[in-house]
Amino acid sequence: MSKSRNRRPTIIDVAERAGVSKSTAARALAGSSNITDDTRDRVLKAASSVGYERNSLAVGMRSGRSGMLGLVIPDITNPFWAEVARGAQDKAAESGSSLLVFSSDWDAAKEAAHLRALRQARVDGAIINPVADNFDDLDRFGLPFLLIGSSAERFAETSSVGSDIAQAVQLGMDLLVSKGHPAPSLILGPKSRLARARFLRAVHEHCIARDVDPAILDVEDGEYTVEGGRIAMRRLLERDRVGHVCVFAANDMMAIGAMMAVREAGLRCPDDVSIIGFDGIPSGEFAWPGLTTIAKPGRDLGARAVEGLFDEIEHRPEHRRIYLPCRLIERGSLADLSVPTPKRVSGAGRG
Amino acid sequence: MSKSRNRRPTIIDVAERAGVSKSTAARALAGSSNITDDTRDRVLKAASSVGYERNSLAVGMRSGRSGMLGLVIPDITNPFWAEVARGAQDKAAESGSSLLVFSSDWDAAKEAAHLRALRQARVDGAIINPVADNFDDLDRFGLPFLLIGSSAERFAETSSVGSDIAQAVQLGMDLLVSKGHPAPSLILGPKSRLARARFLRAVHEHCIARDVDPAILDVEDGEYTVEGGRIAMRRLLERDRVGHVCVFAANDMMAIGAMMAVREAGLRCPDDVSIIGFDGIPSGEFAWPGLTTIAKPGRDLGARAVEGLFDEIEHRPEHRRIYLPCRLIERGSLADLSVPTPKRVSGAGRG
DNA sequence: ATGCGTCGTGGGAACGTTACCGCGCGTCCC
DNA sequence: GGGACGCGCGGTAACGTTCCCACGACGCAT
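Output (structure tokens, whole complex):
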């Protein structure tokens, strides 16, 4: 009469063993009310004695909640996004949810495929860093979702979580000014990326607030990679400039590339060139000199994104947009020009 | 008579629209045989016209295959594991599977919790880098799985994928010897980790093959972190040693830490101390000097792991253990002592 | 012409769970 | 004292898919 040996125990097995109906067993297992303490205990004991484990597939099927969340980021291999993923994963685990992770490689087609996969997997919702130029897939997504990162601005209605670029730039510019670099050169990302404009605007605003004409700032564009930063820095160095050069890179990878270009040009950082980055990736710590940078709260971002996504799933419109503050990390890549040391610094005798 | 508007179309909707039964629709959608081309086309057209997307939950429920794979690694934030995850994710996507990613933090309790989550999610199988000292959870896992990384040796029966430590060490030692460092000091991981013994054994074997007594090698242990490497290097430097020091670190993080310790001691790499690492993490490229290292094929490892896992799931015992070769990356952290340049090198005039 | 096998299709059951309804019982209130 | 109501529980119908079996039609060999 016994069922086939190698089958995972179901709620029916639990119910039989506890001598109740499966409805009652379900109620006990769900921690629901309307049940005697005694019955609940019996069911729980029976469950653990047969080694029962709830089948999430069946639950998802019936209740419409699969207990899975999707995360679509450009590249899990990128340390910043890895931090985000980790934060999201930990927060999801707190609520008993699992995370489906996908890398889009900034490729709209891949992104679309991933979104389809998420829909078919019946995830409860998704956290997405959308590729810049195509929001159609997102419109059709049909599931609760929340945007993460800087592309969020285009979607007025959906919630988003991102880092506070304005505050971050403020942090960096204040430090730069205090060290005697009131008008740094800028190494920015590709013009197509939304984040570029955000960053540039913040710098401009800061300049204007200090009565510095933003137009005097040198600007170079490049890919958000080490190589992109290296090339941009090379171009910056080719410009006929006298004295100390200061560079504010929009991304740590680019900052590291810039550092390499400086070295390759026979110059030294921070003696000849000051560099500050933006992101806070671990590599910056291990570079020489250590990269001074503004760290985005990657893990927090991921965690808050999951929280916001739950609000979205439960139709609690608690918050719409969250911008998390960034944190300054001072290491050795910035020269302090405010103290008048006898170095080969051009004019600019400040302080 | 129309169903409620905001419902995802099911296979029944497709069947009705195509004028066939749901069985036939299912056959058409599954690409099965025993169906007329005409019928198949009608069904496919109906499906795309109503925007049908297969419900993976229901499929998983009925067929027992959820289309999901689990990945349990120590930390997605670790660049090596991120590469593994990426390789696994891409390979899984090729077969239409999704990846559930979990970080265990080398914590047996977390690992156990993750394995439980995977079981409840009814994943088809899992790729696991188990924590060192506890295999009980794995025994009870009950689902197909495959081991990844160096802890695999303890499980004789299960398939595993890892990097070829012996070949990697061979690569490193050969290079070291060719550059005049026949007996490098070793910075190894904690004694508790399985990988440590593997690494040490490979070095010993290489030494014996060259008639070098392994006992003369200085050895320091430490955590697999930058800080661990820094401390180990400091201790190494405290030993009364003359001339050039050469260090073979079992992990890039430690190698980078060692590099920092060298700098902090007022010494220079590679002039005073030669360092070679093992892993191939990106940070090594950005350190100064660039870290010479042996790179593990992280992405391949992940991809092959998924392939192996599929074999396991389908009960195809194709292969049991795979060791993927590593690749040498020469950068600037190794001095070449084989060419007799007038440096402050002690004796040891080889080559 | 009859039997048999195959092909295309339809009808149902099953996967494991939760949602819903109903039923008996005790309690409280008018 | 009788009706209303809440509580604890059981039975059953879904959820969307695949699997299995049955059935008619047809081709082929007997």
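Chain A has three domains: 11-54, 67-163+298-325, 165-296.
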